[in-house]
Design goal:
Radius of gyration: 17 Å
Shape: globular
CATH class: Alpha Beta
CATH topology: Undecaprenyl pyrophosphate synthetase
Helix content: 40-55%
Strand order of the largest sheet: 3-4-2-1-5-6
Low-confidence stretches: none
CATH architecture: 3-Layer(aba) Sandwich
Number of domains: 1
Number of helices: 7
Number of strands: 6
Mean pLDDT: 97
Distance between the termini: 17 Å
Bound molecules: 3-methylbut-3-enyl trihydrogen diphosphate, magnesium ion
Length: about 230
């Protein structure tokens, strides 16, 4: 397994949770929480340019989030459409390389088309922002293992090479906002030796400052990877 033995994180992933509770506390509709969540995401992507990260992976919509009410799912899909339209030029200008993980081809055809275009237009970027859409880690591992088996090579290396994250640096730090302490089917394989940080901040309140603090916290940890 590839290991990053430096103190500086190369790859950070965030489970952006707590939009609904942020809205509820303000007696606002959940949709408002998601809207503010997109604003937080935009600021974090902007700010992480200066933090020297090679890759930021963001959990935006899980394969289990389809269980939510149709209205909420529609709101989330519309926010996705709006965000790609409004922020693609900035991604390109800032050298961001967009990557999508998960079963994103299963989203609405117009979104798939927008994403294909965005991937193409950002392909020359240097800093990767990977967005997990219609993503479930167990499904991803199952897909990868199926491909590995079809190639007659069911090894750890071959499964890893078929994961959606195959071309990303090893995961260093996984952050979840909102106080929940669980992975909710996110990057289960990739987290094997990742550091974990669970913060109480609700996602719409999360800022680059919080991300900086998380990176400082990471730099102070001793990683062992099973060694001594
Ligand atoms: C995270 O916020 C956004 C998505 C899962 C799409 P939630 O909507 O899960 O917010 P809470 O957990 O209900 O507060
Ligand atoms: C995980 O959050 C998915 C995203 C943040 C996109 P959920 O809110 O869906 O997770 P559970 O249901 O609380 O475990
Ligand atoms: Mg949640």
């Amino acid at each position: 397994m590839a290991e990053n033995t430096e103190k500086r994180a190369r790859h950070v992933a965030i489970i952006m949770d707590g939009n609904g509770r942020w809205a509820k506390r303000r007696m606002l509709p959940r949709a408002m929480g998601h809207k503010r969540g997109v604003e937080a995401l935009r600021e974090v992507v902007r700010g992480c340019r200066d933090l020297g990260l090679e890759c930021l992976t963001l959990y935006a919509f899980s394969s289990e989030n389809w269980k939510r009410e149709e209205e909420e799912v529609d709101d989330l899909m519309n926010l996705m459409r709006k965000f790609i339209k409004s922020d693609l030029p900035e991604f390109i200008a800032n050298d961001v390389k967009l990557k999508i993980i998960g079963d994103w081809q299963g989203l609405a055809p117009d979104i798939v088309e927008m994403l294909e275009d965005a991937l193409e237009q950002t392909s020359k970027g240097t800093q990767t922002v990977a967005v997990a859409l219609n993503y479930g880690s167990q499904q991803e591992i199952t897909r990868a293992a199926t491909k590995a088996a079809a190639a007659g090579d069911v090894t750890e290396a071959s499964i890893a090479a078929h994961l959606d994250t195959a071309d990303l640096p090893p995961l260093d730090l996984l952050i979840r906002t909102s106080g929940e302490v669980r992975l909710s089917n996110f990057l289960l394989w990739q987290s094997a030796y990742a550091e974990m940080l669970f913060v109480d901040t609700l996602w719409p309140d999360f800022t680059v400052e919080h991300l900086k603090q998380a990176l400082d916290n990471f730099a102070g940890r001793e990683r062992r990877f099973g060694g001594r």
